[in-house]
Design goal:
Layout (H helix, E strand, L loop, with lengths): L26 E5 L2 E4 L4 E4 L2 H4 L8 H13 L10 H13 L6 E5 L2 H16 L3 E5 L8 H6 L3 H8 L7 E4 L4 H4 L4 H19 L4 E6 L15 H12 L2 E5 L23 E4 L11 E5 L1 H10 L11 H39 L3 E7 L2 E6 L19 H11 L2 E2 L1 E2 L5 E4 L7 H19 L3
Parallel strand pairs: 3-13, 5-6, 5-7, 7-8, 8-9
Antiparallel strand pairs: 1-2, 2-3, 4-10, 9-10, 11-12, 12-15, 14-15
Length: about 450
């Protein structure tokens, strides 16, 4: 007797972040910064899918490197050495902050953050890691515990206890009731020191932070904040881990986002852009001291596909491509993207904040009469007009991402986008905002 499947062939895949009320676009092809769906509709990809296709969708150098590696040998155990892995590790040591030297490879950003935390706890012999409210560090049980986004934590913790992470407030104006950057940096750092002292400094292994927040709003820290964080880590013997899963590999205008703060972390976690998402790859770059600790004591943790040779070959080729004017493109065109997005706040009262760095920006919406979000999915039911703006933009041919919480839109185009493409996307967003909010 033949089995009767309850769904058609096209419905057999369950996509991530599944929501029965949404109908995601079905993408079949890509070229440059554009993608096409199965109906032949073209879209400018201004979310870089998941903030990761930094080189666009058709970089031949990366594709050829993957093909060559697969023909040489497609897989080597992560417990062994192989040339593509060694080559990429050496390249990462060259582009990372000067105090970082060795890489432990992984598969995804979630797993890279878990490895960094495990290493920090072992090295420091301390259980606690501090992360920010509204942060996102991954969706596995361990990384979910680190994540400060309430929606993610609620999903993860519904049927599993997570522990070992404490939270502190991010350096955003609403958290500290000030728009003055100097006062904000001071108040936010003082708050962090209070949390450190309240938790007991000896119990804290590390502080894990994104240099520029990713899906939680693309907000950069005020000037001087990270200098103070570095000082606090040194004073209380705490490791500083920069989560560069989104901000790494040029998105903020330098190789890593933390380099735009001129602060040296003790570890960098990376994923996404290391291969421009052409293959899954992630890892942790550490100091010589931490590398020596592992070499002396061992680290009996591994993953079958950590540092996959094809992924490492893609990463090496991607780094070469980034070096060939791509990161400079972000630096040169940041002002174009910034000014265009800031003009949205001038054109629309409902746009209450625009912030970001490089090619990572957030646009926040609120009711101008109250200053409160039209819809906060953490506490409100019903329709979200910000989601309507994203859908309207999609219908007009541009893909944007939603932030966490959902009263904001994240703009993160591939790093190869040119000035005309940036202006086209911002114009589309401008028109979409007008369409959605003109009757409100």
């Amino acid at each position: 007797m033949s089995r009767q499947h309850p769904v058609g062939e096209a419905d057999a895949s369950i996509h991530h972040w599944y929501n029965p009320d949404t109908n995601p676009v079905n993408i079949a092809e890509g070229d440059g910064i554009s993608v096409w769906d199965t109906d032949g509709n073209e879209y400018l990809d201004f979310c870089s899918q998941l903030y990761c296709t930094n080189l666009g969708h058709s970089n031949e150098a990366v594709i050829e490197a993957m093909d060559e590696q697969a023909r040489n040998i497609p897989y080597v155990s992560s417990a062994k050495r192989t040339p593509s892995r060694d080559t990429l590790a050496n390249q990462l040591a060259q582009i990372a902050p000067s105090n970082l030297s060795h890489t432990f490879f992984s598969i995804s950003g979630s797993e890279a953050n878990e490895i960094a935390v495990q290493l920090a706890r072992e090295h420091q012999d301390a259980p606690t890691v501090l992360t920010r409210w509204r942060s996102y560090h991954g969706g596995t049980y361990g990384a979910g515990a680190l994540t400060g986004d309430p929606e993610t934590r609620a999903t993860i913790e519904r049927h599993a206890a997570t522990s070992g992470a404490a939270k502190f407030l991010p350096p955003i104006p609403k958290a500290f009731d000030t728009d003055d950057p100097e006062e904000l940096a001071r108040k936010a750092a003082d708050h962090l020191e209070f949390v450190i002292r309240n938790e007991d400094p000896d119990s804290i292994a590390a502080i894990l932070m994104e240099p520029v927040a990713g899906t939680s709003g693309a907000f950069p820290a005020p000037p001087g904040y990270f200098d103070r964080v570095r000082d606090l880590c040194d004073e209380y013997d705490i490791l500083l881990i920069a989560d560069e899963v989104i901000t790494g590999f040029g998105r903020c205008g330098d190789w890593f986002g933390i380099q735009t703060e001129d602060v040296d972390p003790d570890m960098i976690t990376f994923a996404k852009g290391v291969t421009s998402a052409y293959a899954p790859l992630a890892g942790v770059i550490v100091t010589p001291e931490l590398a020596s600790f592992v070499r002396s004591n061992g680290f009996d943790i591994g993953q079958t596909f950590g540092g996959h040779p094809v992924g490492c070959a893609a990463g090496s080729a991607a780094i070469d491509e980034y070096s060939d004017g791509v990161i400079e493109n972000v630096s040169e065109l940041e002002a174009t993207l910034r000014s265009g997005l800031q003009e949205l706040a001038t054109n629309h009262e409902v746009v209450t904040d625009v912030r970001g760095r490089g090619f990572l920006w957030g646009v926040e919406f609120a009711d101008p009469s109250t200053g409160e979000a039209f819809h906060d999915p953490r506490v409100d039911d019903g329709e979200n007009p910000v989601s309507d703006v994203i859908r309207e933009s999609r219908d007009r041919g541009v893909l944007f991402g939603g932030g966490r919480p959902g009263f904001q839109i994240i703009i993160s185009p591939p790093l190869i986008a040119n000035e005309a493409e940036l202006e086209q996307a911002v114009t589309t967003l401008d028109e979409s905002i007008a369409t959605v909010f003109e009757d409100r």
